[in-house]
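Supplementary Text 2. Reproducibility record for the structural model of the 121-residue chain.

All settings were left at their defaults, and a single model was retained for analysis rather than an ensemble. We include the record here because the model underlies the residue-level annotations in Supplementary Table 4.
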Amino acid sequence: MTEHRIYRMSVAKIYPALVAKAERKGRTKAEVDQIIAWLTGYDAAALAAQLANNTDYEHFFTRAPALNPARADIRGVVCGVRVEAIADPVMREIRYLDKLIDELAKGKTMEKILHRPPAKV
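Retained model, structure tokens:
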């Protein structure tokens, strides 16, 4: 299986695009940081260190301090693909973040974004 290019991209390169997407819709950098913290467990200092170290996206997720178990309840489509159907674990983590930022940009409240109902079985 070929490795995706995004795995080697620096989080520092992608992060400004995530913030810009949120800010274009009237949301804030702090909200983006809150989503990242909820998803990965990186606090503000740890996120800043990851950005300063130019950590690649793969290691950002595989070495995350505390991946939130509730992330498995994230459902929906990102880039035409259902996030819950993505088999590759790293790509699924990347798309979870994309989906949460999309929801932020669409105006969902932080409470609805971060307090996800459990997936229906």
